[in-house]
Specification:
Shape: globular
Low-confidence stretches: 5-40
CATH class: Mainly Beta
Structural class: mainly beta
Strand order of the largest sheet: 1-2-3-5-10-7-8
Number of helices: 1
Distance between the termini: 70 Å
Order of helices and strands: HEEEEEEEEEEE
Helix content: 10-25%
Length: 153
């Protein structure tokens, strides 16, 4: 009987511990809100390395921090074929930073690119822009950078 109670208590404690440690990551909102609390253009953190882009009138600009050797992934959704133009800027003009790839809705990818990207999105769907360092040249870089994305249909 003693072992049964101990097992139940241990199971309960382990369950609570796993729930507390494995909770959902907090979403940090870096966006402004318009009338009725609706998001306007902005960048919302989905996880430590993934951010969702909310475009207003086909445009968004946001500031992001990147650690050395980390990549940031920006989720972009389009409901029709379009052309995406994107640009990265940082105060450090020598920052080793670029668009490393664009992931397409069919699972394929294209890249690498530089600090500016123009790409025809042939199908509606979810696209992911990957930003990181050029591993073949330059030193690892960390710091703040701005991303600007324009979508023309």
């Amino acid at each position: 009987m003693r072992f049964e109670k101990s097992g139940v208590v241990l199971g309960l404690v382990l369950s609570l511990f796993l729930i507390a440690c494995g909770g959902r990551p907090e979403k940090k909102e870096q966006e402004k809100h318009g009338p009725a609390g609706k998001p306007v253009a902005g960048v919302t953190e989905v996880s430590r390395d993934t951010l969702a882009l909310s475009l207003e009138n086909g445009f968004v600009r946001g500031k992001v921090y990147k650690e050395e050797r980390d990549k940031k992934y920006f989720i972009l959704k389009t409901d029709a074929p379009a052309t995406v133009s994107a640009r990265l800027e940082s105060e450090d003009t020598l920052a080793n930073l670029r668009f490393t790839q664009i992931f397409l809705p069919d699972g394929s990818a294209d890249g690498p690119f530089g600090r500016e990207l123009e790409y025809n999105l042939e199908k509606p769907g979810i696209y992911v822009l990957s930003v990181g360092e050029n591993m073949m040249a330059g030193d690892p870089w960390s710091g703040d950078f701005s991303i600007e994305v324009k979508l023309e249909k």
